[in-house]
Amino acid sequence: MLRTNLSTRPFYNVRAVRVAIGALGFLILGATIFNVVSIARLTLSQRTLGAHAVESEGEAARLRIEAAAIRSKINPKELDVVAAAAREANSIIDRRAFSWTALFAQFESTLPADVRITSVTPRQEGDGSFVVSIGVEARRVEDLDAFLEALETKSTFRNVLARQEETNAQGIIEAFVEGTYLTGGRQ
Q: Going along the chain, which residue ranges are E strands?
């Protein structure tokens, strides 16, 4: 077998090299066109956003001036009257929103067998919380303590204390229990 090249020119595959260079050229041309289009689109977007930002800043300045003018016209005494009326309305709404059903459901889930409720009196405090006074009758002190602990472990009661305890002629303990009732998830 002969291994020498007898031709005057060696054979190079020029067509494959030209196709590869042409494909690379088309790829570079496509990337360049994409970049030019992206730059043009982003420049237009930047101009639009810049104009919108200038308009927004002007509008904000105008609204600040209007708000200052309105604030200067407000009579502080009238504002205090309106604020007091709003607080009173909110207080009435809070009292109306007191859920007796939820309160009695809470009692039902925590009441031991030998304890019975004789009265329930809620009152709203200045901070909007409710203090519930509960009249209770129990056969033993342990039953009353179990009721107080059960109320305290529920997330809807805090600071549950027996304010007054006495034993009647039949040997039944009559007590008045008071605790803060957290309605609507207030804590």
A: 115-124, 130-138, 157-167, 173-181
Residues 6+ apart with CB under 8 A from 120: 103, 107, 132, 133, 134, 135
What ranges in 74-99 are assigned the alpha helix state H?
76-96
Over its C-alpha atoms, the chain yields an Rg (Å, rounded) of 42
For the domain covering 99-185, report its CATH number: 3.30.1360.100
Q: Is 23 exposed, middle or buried (0-12, 13-18, 19+ CB in 10 A)?
A: exposed
Tell me how far CA of residue 153 lies from CA of 106, 110, 117, 157, 179, in angstroms. 11, 9, 18, 8, 12
Residue 178 makes CB contacts below 8 A (sequence gap 6+) with 131, 132, 133, 134, 160, 161, 163
pLDDT digits (tens, 9 = 90+) for 26-40: 999 999 999 999 999
Residue 186: per-residue pLDDT = 43
Domain spans, the chain: 13-73, 99-185
Higher pLDDT among residues 135 and 129, named by residue: 135
- Alpha-carbon distance 24 to 30, whole Å? 10
